[in-house]
């Protein structure tokens, strides 16, 4: 009976350790991250931006700048800031800073709306269209490189899932905005009704009658008489006595 080969034993141990029944246990913290959609999507975003920057090159348009230009490229007459937020998914404050920088680089132009004088519309400039033409091949190369991390059958499904998540979230936000607007309208209506009820419950003020009008006129006349210069009563008596003394006897 021969002794077993030590190398074979080691191989059997390695094989057993890699089997389905002997998976190494993951740390709880790592398990949470590896199963977290928000964490994984954030990691995927980092990977996508790294690949985009590699393909775009130094000094090129950022991914967000390219997205703004593409959203405006097919828009007749330009878009408002609200429309750009919906089209690109960039939050309002970030988009405002982004548009300001692109305006300073003459990639965009801003004009008054023809239908609303209070609104400004952003349009793509000639330099912006030239930047799109320059960046388009590089952006496509970045997208292909990102999808190459998946097997061909899974690429279309991956893009469809991303699109589905995006559209579902947009519908959710639109529904929330609609409900908020309806609630605000109902609150204004209720406030108006409450004011109307409060006004109806207040006692009506009595109207002044004809007698009150006469009394008011008498009071005014008395006040005017008080303002007139009247001689003192003693002065009038003294004058009358003097007339009786100076008059000759009959």
Give a brief description.
The protein has 250 residues and is mainly alpha-helical. The protein contains ten helices and two strands; from the N terminus they run ααααααββαααα.
Instruction: Specify the CATH architecture of the domain at 35-149.
Output: Orthogonal Bundle
Give the strand tally: 2
Give me the number of helical elements.
10
Helix fraction by DSSP (H/I, runs of at least 4): over 70%
Labels describing this entry:
250 residues, mainly alpha, Arc Repressor Mutant, subunit A, two-stranded antiparallel sheet, 10 helices, elongated
Summarize the topology:
Blueprint: H1 6-17, H2 28-34, H3 37-56, H4 63-73, H5 81-88, H6 92-104, E1 108-112, E2 120-124, H7 126-147, H8 152-201, H9 210-227, H10 233-246
Antiparallel strand pairs: 1-2
Helix pairs in contact: 3-7, 4-7
What features would you describe in this structure?
- The protein is mainly alpha-helical and 250 residues long.
- Among the domains are: 35-149, Orthogonal Bundle (Arc Repressor Mutant, subunit A); 151-198.
- The chain has 10 helices and 2 strands; from the N terminus they run ααααααββαααα.
- The protein has a two-stranded antiparallel ribbon with strand order 1-2.
- Helix 3 packs across helix 7 and helix 4 packs across helix 7.
- The termini are far apart.
- 8% of the residues are buried.
